[in-house]
Design goal:
Elements: H1 8-34, H2 37-45, H3 48-61, H4 66-91, H5 95-135, H6 141-154, H7 160-173, H8 177-184, H9 189-198, H10 207-221, H11 224-237, H12 244-270, H13 284-295, H14 297-329, H15 344-361, H16 368-395, H17 397-400, H18 407-432
Helix pairs in contact: 2-7, 2-11, 2-12, 2-14, 3-5, 3-10, 3-12, 3-14, 3-16, 4-10, 4-11, 4-12, 4-16, 5-6, 5-11, 5-14, 5-15, 5-16, 6-14, 6-15, 8-12, 8-14, 10-16, 10-18, 11-14, 13-14, 14-15, 16-18
Amino acid sequence: MNSRPISTEDESVVSTSQVKRKFKLRYLNVFWLLLGPGVLAMIGDNDAGGVISYAVTGAKFGVGLFIPLVLVLGVVTFTVQEMSLRVGVVSSTGYAKLVFDRFGKFWGYYHITTLTLENLITLLTEFIGMTAGLVILGLPLWTADLLSLGLVVSITMFTGYWTKERLTLFIGALNVVFVVVALLTHPSFQDVAHALVRWNLPAFAPFKNVIWYVIATIGNAIAPWMIFFQGSAVIDKGVTKKQLVLGRMDTAIGAVVQVVIAAFIILCGAALFGHVSHLSSAGPATLISALNIHFGRLAAILFGFGIFNAGFLAAITISLSSSWTIAESFGWARSLNDSIRKAPGFYGVYFGSLLVASGVLLIPNLPMDFISVLAQVVGGVLIAPILIFLVLFAADRKMMGQYASRLWSKCWGWSIVILLIALTIATFWQTFGTF
């Protein structure tokens, strides 16, 4: 066996290789540490109300229009959340506090009020989803409601931001269950490919009906709470300007995961196309029951678990967006690193919003599916004024310096604002007027 002594050149190659490997491992470690706010905001956007809304949309219209729509919306959502990330990191100030400081009390209280209203409606849909997932296992509604409340409240028992964030990320990862359910329904991927190429309006549905669900889909993709949540989360986590690139990667990964999961949820609903009647007045249990009848108990149980898990994650993130926003606006302690004793106002908002939502759920004869879709529509209507201020903040050179939006970014941001305003007008027109 031949051997030769290691030369200086060989040592240099080995040393360079080791340095590169250490650099990659260090980079991956830093990225893992920063992963969280963007992914949680995006995955939390596929909340229980969103899941029900997507499934109902698929059951009503199939895959032709809405799967391409949600995939395209990933770009829009990333744009909005990247601005939230950038403004939060550079200013080190939450969105609502910026509005108070720069535009006065009227707009500050407007944003707090609209966020609280939208969050409470959305939280109600989370409890609708969580209880539906537990009721299928045989629990009575009040027991399922109380258990859901207890689980969401229990997240505060863990110590520190990091532990709470990692636990919440694990909960979010379980959303992959919707991919499994969709595959159990034996979808036609040829139809999906055809929809991506053609992307046309359903010929059998009235335009007024379709536009309502288009607004609902957009409202789910770009929810107001997401802007407040991510901006506050990166501040609480301590993300710095030097880490913005990794923060954008975190947001981009979340955007991709969000739209892919949403597309599979629509596939789950599309499998029930023509098999479920009175969708707008039925509860999520109707969807679970239909899956049980047509595709077996495993598909139904997994879908029920998926709705519960989606509601569980979103109830945490949505409640936190309210807590961070209100606490900062009034100058209260507001960190997840603080104990309940040190930040009573922050945790009081968290517990209070959960109690209200879980209590309303027990009102008899709630039109649950309609409320789920309504929550997304309300989000679509409220997002426009909130987004106007976000675009202004992101482009403010005095505040943002070199991190201010460039010309193309400003044009794209204002295009999104104009689109949302146009869709808002269309919603009111089709709801209260006639075409």
